[in-house]
Each structure stands twice: as structure tokens, then as C-alpha cells.
Amino acid sequence: MKEVNIILFGVGNVGNTLISQLLENKDKWKKKKGLSVKIPVIANSQRAIFNPEGIDQDWKEKLKTSSEVYDLEDIIKFSKENKLENIIAVDATASKDIVLEYPKLVRSGFHLVAANKVANTLSDEFYTELRKELEVHKKHFYYETNVGAGLPIVQTVQGLHQAGEKVTKIRGVFSGSLSFIFNSFSDSDSDFSEVLKKAGELGYTEPDAREDLSGNDVGRKLLILARELQLKKEFKEVKIQSLIPEQLNGKTSVEEFNERISELNEIFEKQKKNQKKDHVLRYVGELKVGSGSLEAKLISAPRESALGQIEGADNIFEIYTKSYGNHPLVIQGAGAGAAVTARGVVSDVLKLSQRLNK
Ligand SMILES: NC(=O)c1ccc[n+]([C@@H]2O[C@H](COP(=O)([O-])OP(=O)(O)OC[C@H]3O[C@@H](n4cnc5c(N)ncnc54)[C@H](OP(=O)(O)O)[C@@H]3O)[C@@H](O)[C@H]2O)c1
Questions:
Q1: Ligand 1: does its nearest atom lie under 6 Å from the Cβ of 214?
Q2: pTM to 2 decimals?
Q3: pLDDT for 9 beyond 90
Q4: Hey, which of 73, 93, 118 would you mutate to test ligand 1's pocket, going by the most ligand atoms within 8 Å of its Cβ?
Q5: Residue 315 near residue 340, CB atoms below 8 Å
Q6: Where in the chain are all domains bearing CATH 3.40.50.720?
Q7: What is the pLDDT of residues 301-316, one digit of tens each?
Q8: Which of 10, 145, 146, 172 qualifies as a FRET site for 93, CA 20 to 30 Å off?
Q9: Among this protein's residues, is 221 annotated catalytic?
Q10: Which residues contact 180 (CB under 8 A, 6 or more apart)?
């Protein structure tokens, strides 16, 4: 029996669902794959619970009542003392603090799986250093859910690139929240502010919707894909069109922003009206390999085009390569949500496990 030990950071939407998926499937993996997956440590920003045999269904109650304030050294020490093998640190937080500890985790013998995008969007220097550490210590790092949640985007781009296929352009709708907002707004007579409110109610946007409207998340995903193609880029080089009008930017509180969202209506109504016939608004990311340009922007696309036809909160990725010519490889589907994201993390854990010898 091969044993894999998961140290989980973050038990929010994704982490919580991930634990359920792992616990639901562990007996099946034992029987069918000869793989025993345990979760000996789970941690949020305050507390952790430790059990060398792995946590069980009652973990929530235990974490709530745990008084175990921890730091990373405690986790590393616990792993050594209990001789845990094949340790995978799974990062289901959005924290930079944890990411800055990745090199130390790798040096301490941990593999990495991250839903957190931060490690791949800090400086090129950090990105390169982390990969050097991974190589020196023969450790693996999987992060498929960084782009397109559960959709196989990172692995497809990596696979094409490694096989020697020349990827020329990647374009698409990379944000579930902006997808929902513009798909709904284009197809209804509702005001932009009503659509934005609905997106919030359905849990598509962050509590401060400006995080979505800033376009930064799309910019980060562009950067991650560019780096997969060995383009040396920094986040500040991504050209990002923010959809937040200047008067509602930065200085206004979330509450004030929410009270004043009707100020967005005229801006977007005008853009909707100024389009050619049978066109719809879409917020897209576009990466052109030849010129090295990375751009996130609002465009008007023909309704009949692949971009124009997407619905709900779907993502779509068009991958143009030399061999595919003008007919890109297209990957489309839910690009956000706890269930699909956690499933993507599980898939990374299983792929990583397959590469471990014992
Ligand atoms: N949700 C999606 O559809 C989706 C899709 C793709 C990728 N992702 C990525 O997945 C990650 C998690 O998303 P989420 O929606 O699950 O977030 P979330 O619900 O906000 O949960 C974040 C979790 O991280 C914990 N945390 C924060 N700082 C920490 C630290 N320093 N050490 C340990 N734990 C810490 C939080 O603990 P406290 O409660 O104690 O603060 C919380 O349990 C994010 O990076 C997100 O970008 C999400």
C-alpha cells in the first residue's frame, strides 16, 4: 500500500469540499489503487488539528474547539516525529504568507498542490527560485486549478508546449464572475447594477465586487499561462482594463460602493448600445506569444462566435497553435465553484501520487 499524507492549509469553500471528496473516496482508492490517502493536519489561519492516523468526519467540531495555535515549524516537526511519508502540502488559501513558506516546505520534504494562485504570480525571481528548489529536492508542484478551476487548462498548455507544439495565442473568458455578469447583461434588459447584485447573491463575486471588476484575476491567469510558455513576465506587464469608474475606486468603502453601483449603469448601457448588430459584451484575456502581449479587456464579440455563445458563469479558453491553425483547441465549462475546484485539487493529488515510488 502506497501512503500519501496531506497537510491541508485552508478549510474555506474549496478546502472544506476537498476534505469531503477525499474522505468519500479513500476506501475506493485503497481497494482499487493500493493508495492510502490520509489528512494528518488541517489548518486555518488561526488553528490546526493534528492526527498521525488522519482526520475523520468529525474534523469540523475538532477544529472549532481546538486551542492549537500553530506555526509552520510545528507542522514540520510533527511530520518528522511521526515519520510521515509522501507528504503533500495542499494550499487552499489565498494567502501570500503560506506561499512565502513554500521553499521551506520543499526543503523539508513536502510536495505541493495549490489552488492558491499567488506562488505563480509573484515575481519571476520567486517563480524561478521555487522551481530550482523543487528540482534540487526532487519534489513536485501541481496547480491545475489556478486557471479555469477544474478545467484541464494548465496541463493542456504544458503538454502542447513540452511536445514542441508552437502555441501562438490563448484567448478567452477566464473569470466565472465576469462571465456571468456579461452573459446575463447582454441577454437581458436589466440594469448593470441589478446583474451585479444577482452575481453577488449567487456567490459568483467576491464580497467586494471591485476585486472581480478590476480584472486583476484575469490578469493573474494570463501571467500563469504566459509563464507556462516560458515567457518571462511580471504582473505589472499585464495590460488590464479595470471596469471600476474612477469615482468608485480605492477610497470608497465596500458599503459605499454597493450603495452607488447604479453609477455603473450608464457606462455599460452605452457600451451595450454602441455595438454592431448581434454582438455581445465579453471580458476576455488575450495572450499573444509572438509579441509577448498580455491583455485583459472588455470586447464586443459576435453572438454566434465561440466567445459570444457561452452561458451562465462558464469559462472558455481558445488555444491557438501552429498545427491547429485558425481553428483553435477550445476548452469550455464551469471555471469556478467549490465542487469543481476541489475535484481539480483531488486530481492533482492523484497525479502527484502516481509519480511517487513507495
Ligand atoms: N472558489 C473557487 O471557485 C476557486 C476556483 C479556483 C481557485 N480558487 C482558489 O482557491 C483558494 C481558496 O478559495 P476559497 O474560495 O476556498 O477561499 P475561502 O473560502 O476564503 O477560504 C480560505 C481559507 O484559507 C484559510 N487561510 C487564510 N490564511 C491562512 C493562513 N495563513 N494559513 C492557513 N489558512 C489560511 C482561511 O482560514 P480563516 O477562516 O481562519 O481565515 C480559510 O479557511 C483561493 O486561492 C482561490 O483563489 C478558488
A1: no
A2: 0.96
A3: yes
A4: 93
A5: no
A6: 2-149+339-354
A7: 999 999 999 999 999 9
A8: 172
A9: yes
A10: 199, 202, 204, 312, 313
Catalytic residue among 221, 270, 272, 276: 221
**341 Cβ closer than 6 Å to some ligand 1 atom:** yes
Best residue among 7, 11, 14 to mutate for probing ligand 1's pocket (most ligand atoms within 8 Å of CB) is 14
Q: How far is the CA of 12 from the centre of ligand 1 (A)?
A: 5
* pLDDT score, position 250: 76
337 close to ligand 1 (CB < 6 Angstrom): yes
Segment 133-160 mean pLDDT: 98
For residues 135, 141, 142, 147, the Cα torsion angle rounded to the nearest 10 degrees is -90
Q: Judge if the beta carbon of residue 93 lies within 6 A of ligand 1.
A: yes
What average pLDDT does the segment 33-43 reach? 97
pLDDT in tens, 207-223: 899 999 999 999 999 99
Residue 308, CA atoms < 13 Å, CB-side half-sphere: 11
Neighbouring CB atoms inside 10 A of 206's CB total 16
Strands of the 87-91 sheet, one edge to the other: 48-50, 35-43, 2-9, 87-91, 111-114, 141-142
Domain with CATH 3.30.360.10 in the chain: 153-335
What is the position in ligand 1's atom list of the atom closest to the CA of 336?
3
Residue 143: the pLDDT is: 98
Query: For the structural domain made of 153-335, what CATH number should be given?
Result: 3.30.360.10
More confident residue, 250 or 57: 57
pLDDT at 66: 87
